[in-house]
């Protein structure tokens, strides 16, 4: 079965985009300071916290990469198991939430500098900017897929339009606009997926028809993946979520500790639902469209459903993509304005200077992300590369700050960050994956071991430590 574009689906997606941009215009008027722009003035309630966490985490990597691609390429069960990485990470973040809020910092580099000095801040802001630009790049492409299905325009042209929409939303109201559009999008996502699943399964020939049409190995526990191949896909999301600046900023942005905790629990439930429903749709898509680009698996099914169902599902996919793209773009720009410019170049910068510089960086980095996205052959590839770079360089050091704070030394932390970053970047590309191992299997464990080992062997002193809750 070939995928044929259906322009009537565009009307529903366009309606959603109009609502999102309308919220962005409203948030523009509500955003007056750098803190408003970066952490929404620390004013978010439970429902908005839950919605923004879910919508930010479940982006194009979910509906065009990640669980979607694994279900289409490898099987249903490994795709559902893939989602357990995020669930473990959410549980750990909930346990760390009081400490994260008590740190009283707006960015991950600020937290790292408190323990590892300016060197740690510089390394972390460079790694975060690099990884987040990669993540943003495939959100643009994901929206290009949506526009391809609805209008028939080439994915490259759709990607350009997606770039403009995501940049505009992030630049208008910062986290204030992103958080509220996230809450709307999270509701749309869950409703769209729940409604669509039975229609997709029936259209694909029922469950027996689907299982008879997919490769036999796709019914195994790990599909056609080896244990090491599965782990190489599973570990990067876990490493990212444990230290993801977007998640930390949303935890900080909560109005109360109780509301934030409730929001984290709701996020967990939302991820359980999403990471089950998306793989089912993509798995059914393999029976319907056996020769697709895996990134198109979920999106392609919308063309074979009743228009109102396909439109809702496609709008839900657009919701995933746009909110995540805006969030990660905004977060990377926060690092450049707050950590690089104000933290290192101009400590006396005014709040308004930081505020407007962040907006300017949104445009500059957005354009760079578009260019970067053209260099990777698949969304899943750029997704894993970005996650691994972040997870190897940032996550071990940040967890060490929270979990072994009294024993962590500056030299230990910096050694782990530098080695982790270098291994993540060069292991697959320059060294050609020695012993057949993926970078994530090597880089993050070595970084963590070096932090512990070097900290044990040295007597270096950490920077002055902030009080913690």
From TrEMBL:
GO terms for cellular component: plasma membrane. InterPro entries: Na/Glc_symporter_sf (IPR038377), Na/solute_symporter (IPR001734), Sodium:Solute_Symporter (IPR050277). It is a multi-pass membrane protein. Gene3D superfamilies: Sodium/glucose cotransporter. One of its GO terms (molecular function) is symporter activity. It is found in: Cell membrane. The chain crosses the membrane at residues 6-27, 39-57, 77-97, 122-147, 159-180, 187-205, 225-243, 264-288, 308-333, 354-372, 384-404, 411-427, 439-458. Belongs to the sodium:solute symporter (SSF) (TC 2.A.21) family. PANTHER family: SODIUM/PROLINE SYMPORTER-RELATED, SODIUM_PROLINE SYMPORTER. This is Na /proline symporter.
């Amino acid at each position: 079965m070939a995928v044929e574009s259906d322009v009537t689906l565009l009307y529903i997606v366009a309606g959603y985009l109009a609502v999102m941009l309308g919220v962005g215009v409203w948030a523009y008027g509500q955003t007056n300071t750098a803190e408003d722009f970066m952490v929404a003035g620390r004013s978010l309630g439970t429902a908005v916290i839950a919605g923004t966490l879910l919508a930010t985490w479940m982006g194009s990597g979910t509906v065009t990469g990640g669980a979607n691609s694994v279900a289409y390429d490898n099987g249903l069960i490994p795709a559902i198991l893939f989602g357990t990485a995020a669930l473990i990470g959410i549980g750990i973040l909930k346990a760390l939430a009081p400490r994260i809020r008590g740190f009283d910092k707006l960015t991950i580099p600020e937290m790292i500098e408190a323990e590892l000095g300016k060197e740690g801040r510089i390394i972390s802001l460079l790694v975060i900017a690099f990884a987040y630009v990669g993540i943003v790049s495939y959100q643009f492409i994901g929206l290009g897929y949506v526009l391809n299905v609805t209008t028939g325009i080439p994915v490259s042209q759709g990607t350009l339009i997606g770039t403009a929409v995501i940049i505009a939303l992030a630049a208008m109201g910062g986290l204030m606009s992103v958080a509220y559009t996230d809450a709307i999008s999270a509701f749309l996502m869950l409703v769209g997926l729940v409604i669509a699943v039975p229609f997709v399964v029936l259209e694909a020939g029922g469950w027996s028809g689907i299982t008879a049409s997919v490769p036999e190995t796709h019914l195994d526990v790990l599909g056609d993946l080896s244990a090491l191949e599965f782990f190489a896909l599973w570990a990067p999301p876990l490493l990212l979520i444990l230290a993801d600046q977007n998640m930390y900023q949303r935890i900080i942005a909560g109005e109360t500790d109780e509301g934030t905790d409730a929001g984290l629990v709701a996020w967990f439930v939302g991820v359980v639902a999403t990471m089950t429903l998306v793989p089912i749709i993509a798995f059914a898509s393999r029976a319907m469209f056996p020769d697709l680009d895996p990134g198109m698996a979920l999106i392609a099914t919308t063309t074979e459903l009743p228009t109102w169902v396909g439109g809702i599902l496609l709008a839900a996919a657009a919701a995933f993509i746009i909110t995540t793209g805006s969030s990660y773009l905004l977060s990377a720009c926060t690092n450049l304005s707050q950590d690089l410019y104000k933290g290192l170049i101009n400590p006396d910068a005014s709040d308004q200077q930081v505020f407007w510089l962040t907006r300017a960086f949104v445009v500059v980095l957005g354009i760079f992300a578009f260019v970067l996205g053209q260099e990777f052959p698949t969304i899943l590839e750029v997704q894993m590369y970005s996650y691994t770079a972040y997870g190897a360089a940032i996550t071990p050091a940040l967890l060490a700050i929270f979990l072994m704070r009294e024993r962590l030394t500056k030299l230990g932390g910096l050694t782990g960050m530098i080695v982790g970053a270098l291994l993540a970047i060069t292991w697959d590309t320059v060294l050609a994956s020695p012993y057949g191992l993926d970078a994530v299997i090597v880089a993050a464990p070595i970084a963590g071991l070096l932090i512990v080992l070097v900290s044990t062997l040295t007597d270096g002193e950490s920077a002055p430590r902030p009080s913690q809750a």
